[in-house]
Amino acid sequence: MSEYTLRIRRFDPESGGAAYWDERSLEMGDKRSVLDAILELKDTQDGSIGIRCSCQQGICGSCGVRINGKPGLACNTHLDAAAARAHNGDENVITVEPMGNIPVIRDLIVDMDAVHWKKIRRVTPWLINKEPIPDREYIVPHDNMVDITQPMACIQCGACVSDCLSMEVDPGFIGPAALAKAYRFVGDPRDAEHLERLKDLSEDEHGLYDCTHCFNCVDACPKDVAPMNQIMRLRRIAGEDYHINDRNNGNRHEEAFVTLVRENGLLHEAELLPRSYGGNSWFGKFHPDAGKELMTSLGTVIKAVLRGKISPKIAIFGHKLPSEDMKSLKQIYKVVDGRESRTELNLYITGYEDEDEIPEHAPHADDPTPLVVPDAGAPEAASSAEEPIEPAGESNESETP
Ligand code: SF4
Ligand code: SF4
Ligand code: FES
Predict the structure, then answer these.
(1) If you take atom 8 of ligand 2, which residue's CA is the nearest one?
(2) Which of 22, 110, 115, 229 is paired with 382 by a 20 to 30 Å CA distance?
């Protein structure tokens, strides 16, 4: 048993007062959870402390809070582990706050309907089945089922939403949990509307391309759903497989980024913006759309040069890796480009009970060799870069009994 002090963020809208810190101490075993401690305080010291919980087993997702600054589940965070992440240097002091980016109803209880569930509903969170409906069940290829198991592991706790930096800046961003849910259906070969879903999410200015790769949702998720990875998959399927050139220039920006790294080994920022708006080549900067964007960012560039953040030479001509390093880089691109198809299945679980069962072609988390597996949902390459295509290999009828 150790003594712990919990600093709980309290707020009662009915009182008319501001939020405040409520500090309370208790003795408890180190391996008891933060939720156990809060419930004990409720029982013995102040029954009015507000927290939402149900299963107490890390399954229902209702006890999401911020513990010493990090979002997570109160019921599966041990007291000693929580105290160890204290950044204030106080021994055994644990701060517990409501999750971020979601309005607070009272104390530690946030309004999940106002943000989280609203965004989940936004992505059409159900399967739109292909027609004709088979007499018996649809058969999903094993690898696809394994792939979507990762987003399916989401318990809707909202921890990723709480720490999403993009959502902090743009509350309209669809967000990590909802986009992971979208991948659950785009990765499912039984779903009939992959293209419509991807087009919708790409064209939305708060959609796929609003994520800034901050990794916070990956760190926050108690179920290893890795929402950012699912968002990147959606982007690649939208851009590379369906050739959706969205009005937000998200896909063009990604293409320009990849090309510049391929050509220079390093990012040439001054080229990135005109290529994203005016076309992915050196001539992109002469396109009127690129000119407009360049004019709006000229002030920022001048400020950066004056403050010595970038040298005028690098701003104009960019920089390049030494030739030896460029050779290694080209080798990497050669391997990746030489693959028969892009393979990026989630490796959350293999789906096989025993090692002996794993077929040779199956992807494996420990195997660094790039594997090519049949992708039941992948469309054929498009003939036009502008027009999204109906994926050719989309139908699974041959697998449907
Ligand atoms: S990686 Fe993207 S979705 Fe995830 S928290 Fe950061 S900005 Fe949000
Ligand atoms: S993705 Fe992870 S953190 Fe986000 S709601 Fe689902 S389980 Fe919670
Ligand atoms: S109470 Fe259900 S996940 Fe914590």
Answers:
(1) 157
(2) 229
